[in-house]
Amino acid sequence: MGAYLRPRRLEEALLALDRPHVVLAGGTDFYPARVGRAIEEDVLDIGALAALRGISAVAGGWRLGATTTWSELVEADLPPLFDGLKQAAREVGGRQIQNVGTLAGNLCNASPAADGVPCLLALDAEVEVASRTGARRLALGQFITGPRRTALKPGELVVALHVPRPAHPTRSAFLKLGARRYLVISIAMAAATVEIADDRIAAARVAVGACSAVAQRLPALEAALAGARVDRSLADRVDPAHFTPLAPIDDVRGSASYRSDAVLVLLRRLLTSIAS
Amino acid sequence: MKVAFTLNGTATVWRGLPVTRLAAALRDDLGLTGTKVGCDAGDCGACTVLLDDRQVCACLVAMGQVEGRTVETVENLERSDGGLARLQEAFLAHGAAQCGICTPGMLMAAEDLLRRTRQPGRAEIEEALGGVLCRCTGYGKIIEAVLAASQQPMVRLSPPAGAAVGARMVRVDGHAKVTGRDLFGADAVPDDALWIRVVRSPHARARFELGDLGALRHRLAAVLTAADVPFNGFGIYPDIKDQPVLAAGIVRYRGEAVLALVGDRATVLSIGDDEVPIRWTPEAPVMGIDAATAAGASLVQADKPRNLLLDGGVRRGDVATAFAGCAAIVEGLFETAFVEHAYIEPEAGWARRVGDRIEIHVTTQTPYMDRDEIANVMRLSPDSVRIVPTACGGGFGGKLDLSVQPLVALAAWRLKRPVACVYTRPESMAATTKRHPARIAAKFGCDAAGKLVACDVRATFDTGAYASWGPTVANRVPVHAMGPYAVPHVRTWGEAFFTNGPPAGAFRGFGVPQAAIAHEAMMDALADRLDIDRLEFRHRNALRAGDTTATGQVLAHSAGLAQCLDALRPHWRRAHDEVAAFNAASGARRRGVGIGCMWYGIGNTSMSNPSRIRIGLSPSGELTLYNGAVDIGQGSNTILTQIAADALGLPAGQFVLVAGDTDRTADAGKTSASRQTFVSGKAAERAGHDLRRQILRLANAGSDATLSLEGTRITVRDGAEVRTIDLAATGPLTAEGTFDPPTTALDADGQGVPYATYAFAAQIATVEVDLELGTVKVLRIVAAHDVGRAINPTLVEGQIEGGIAQGLGLALMEEFLPERTENLHDYLIPTVGDVPEIDCILIEDAEPLGPSGAKGVGEPGLVPTAPAILGAVHHATGVRAMRVPLLPHRLHEAIVAAKGKRA
Ligand SMILES: Cc1cc2nc3c(=O)[nH]c(=O)nc-3n(C[C@H](O)[C@H](O)[C@H](O)COP(=O)(O)OP(=O)(O)OC[C@H]3O[C@@H](n4cnc5c(N)ncnc54)[C@H](O)[C@@H]3O)c2cc1C
Ligand code: FES
Ligand code: FES
Description:
- The structure holds two protein chains of two kinds.
- Chain A has nine helices and 14 strands.
- Chain A is an alpha+beta fold.
- Chain A folds into two domains: about 5-165, Uridine Diphospho-n-acetylenolpyruvylglucosamine Reductase, domain 3 (2-Layer Sandwich), CATH 3.30.465.10; about 170-275, 2-Layer Sandwich (Enolase-like, domain 1).
- In chain A, the strands form four sheets. In chain A, strands 4-5-10-6-7 form a five-stranded antiparallel sheet.
- In chain A, strand 12 (about 190-195) and strand 13 form a beta hairpin.
- Chain A starts with a strand and ends with a helix.
- Chain B is of the alpha+beta class.
- Chain B contains 23 helices and 31 strands.
- In chain B, helix 16 (about 535-540) runs antiparallel to helix 17 (about 560-585).
- The chains are: A alpha+beta, B alpha+beta.
- Chains A and B meet through helix 4 and helix 9 of A and strand 4, helix 4, helix 8, helix 13 and helix 23 of B.
- The structure holds flavin-adenine dinucleotide and FE2/S2 (inorganic) cluster (2 copies).
- Flavin-adenine dinucleotide sits at the interface of chains A and B.
């Protein structure tokens, strides 16, 4: 039988990670991967670590504790910058999942269809990682290195996510495509954040999920949007040529060509909703 | 480790491994089996409880995380005076619990909402319940119940003597379902039971050799192999026992049982498949109809040439000549997929040896067939086997085949200890039967006036690795494949082929839903061709009383399709107007309206299927319905009580129920083929009449006398005369009724009387299609069903609404792919947000043979739904689905292709 640790202090947790442990946060990815068999791994439950909880405004932006749940995010008082992430939070599983599933868990699980990832990419989020030897910060794009793979090294724990404060007033949105209304893994999803100055886009960040091994930003589209007037014509700027970072595949949820077509539609609708 | 927390208001200390799931701790250690487990993976929500006042899946919470917190389960909902909470009352009154396996989770999710929002609207309710799946109800009655719970309190209806039939009586077993007290297959396993974990084939087709099992046997109480099974073959038909309990050297589908590990629960769970010495030699599997029928295809079962299980058909008139004279002819080739039953309760049960008898407590649809099959497998006499059905958390045909029964029985017999087995969700999905994938080639022709003249339908089925109910499907479909229409010249053919897919068995409708997709598409096409309204075209051709069917049967009574269509006509017109108005403002979304019709023969096809029901009145005045028909959620416990009560003349509320137990009831056949209301209901009616006659005779009273029962005394009032019978003095009374619907065998041309009566139905669907994304949202369904007589309208509507939800899944999302969709997040069934509001219209064209005129409704709800939805998609887009499910990418592709053609 494995060990089960539920420390209250971060140092204890990091000390424990001297030996390999499976980290347990909300458990919504942990348990489904262990159906019908005995659980024998050593487990580090991070749910009682005060240092990993809560959302706060800090210098330069916001800190989202690693164990912030989707429900806590939805209920938090945050500026429109976070509207897209909140929309995603409401689409993760059902209420039961949102009440315990965590933001960092979603990133660490690193599913190509993780709904949080495109939003956080579009927020330019950084991942704060700690170990006994110190802390480091990585851009989210560097943190997730492949399907179900992250840059976490042995002994490291995700402590928080950091979202920088944009230079201009910002709007954000998220759209998810699934084959049923609730509890559904995305066929494709898209997130966008646009900073607006003088009715024009000062900076745009757009990301697409479930259409590549890891969700991708679309720099060419972002460039095409920069300087554009924020009106209905935004949608017309999306061009399939912007999709080169994507590599959609065929699976039970949809075909590759469908995903490509769907991304175009999702992005156009996303930008239309941002413009209105 | 010790975990201290507050459970249902009480300080509680639990000891165990902190990584234990909360659901398991509640159920296995704390005795709270009201919390159900349907998947252990967060996908079904059956385990929903409140943790610190918020709904969570108890299967995803570690006990270590519960320290110091509060947990509330369904057992906490009842009021402190023992009465039901308003929400529970509302669930009862609205028929929101059918099988009841999802009910505790639904209640807790709703409770979470009601604590935050006093008077929630429909949208808020959907959001709150979005994480709990229900496979039975179609969600409508659950939403109604939650809406009602925040409003006025309920009055529970308890019909007086003589007024039970037709009343919206609450389910007789409903209280247990809304309190979490109902005991399902996994709920009452004895503490000292050993557990089985089945080792299954990872290959669709392989040979294998077992290595040395000595080391495993040392760790376990037993390791069962094929060699331990006295007669290693089972199957539905007496002459086709082709499925081994445990495979012997060869496996024919992925998920087939190979070994049973028997031991204490922790030990069997800790043994991984990689520790079991099996040397596999995989072979190329035969997948799909084309592979099975290809020249030189390898055989799935060595003694089944051409991989053919069975074929046959119906022939009437002269099809070739008739087609030559048709004004319009249409053709199509339609394909459907494997569909999973996805009942929320996985297979579960346990057995114990009692002397020289074996007793099996199991979730099942068919206790008597189970008894005989277990006797056969174990080489015992049927009286040595007792089946005690537990509450059944959904069946839909999937619990008509054996699952855990032979394994727990063999192990308990040998080890002389109780032995239990509960399938995991992936195991349930991989190992058990599916709906048959079908390929249906249809051709229909009509005259210039729009009267059908001829049809030729060939339905080819993939029956998977073993026969199961394949013959039933292949027999039933040719009888139904022309649809509920008068067609003078008919040729239909059904054939089923073995493949290395999962065994395809019984699933609500036995192949008829697949066939309906084809014949209804043909009706639309002919109507469009002749520019006749699609509803009117069907009305013109509807089978009516007095018509002769394709099997030569004259429908003497109760053929209410035309009445259904008449009832739908105003809805149809209104839907057209609304759709036209919406589409006028053209955008990326277009709406459409579709219609589907069906007929469905009640009971077995051309085969005896008797039911026997008993009623006892004991010297102490206890009135008992001994009911061998299992209620799998559809409501037969209640329906049979209502029928028996009125036949006898006492209030339904005075009955107690003994259900299913093969030692205490008589055989009432299986719960399938929509037969329990019609067949067992008739037997219950006769039993009620029998008891009434006995009482009237004792009281020497006339047939109009009224009865009442108080304590041990029956009072018989016959006009002014009042007589009493003291049961304590007369001794027990027992009465019995039997019924076997009159049918005849079908001849070589399929001519005869396959069923004593048929249900008819028509449904309208309104859909909205996202033309750019290929997604379909069903906005509304109006369903008109001729049920003969609605014994309990709430339960009838529940069957229709639940059937519609499954029909929606069949049309739009459900496709079982071995290995790829063996869980409830890759295999999608409709959630509360996917099923639209449904209007049910009940047509009562009485069937003289049935109890109070009733027929059946269990399967018919599902049959017209997919055709109506697909017709609506066609109306909206011009695209006709030739393959279901019509997943977004498939519809998108078809829309793009159609655009390309037009351009
Ligand atoms: C029914 C259901 C529906 C779902 N629907 C969706 C959906 O719609 N969209 C979606 O994106 N996801 C969905 N998920 C997946 C899951 O809920 C999310 O990914 C969730 O955010 C994971 O968080 P968690 O805290 O539960 O993770 P856990 O299961 O606790 O952990 C996930 C993984 O991350 C690791 N980990 C967690 N926290 C840390 C940390 N701080 N540092 C290092 N490693 C860590 C764990 O070791 C584990 O490997 C669904 C899951 C279920 C069961
Ligand atoms: S058992 Fe917990 S969600 Fe299915
Ligand atoms: S009543 Fe909901 S699953 Fe049966």
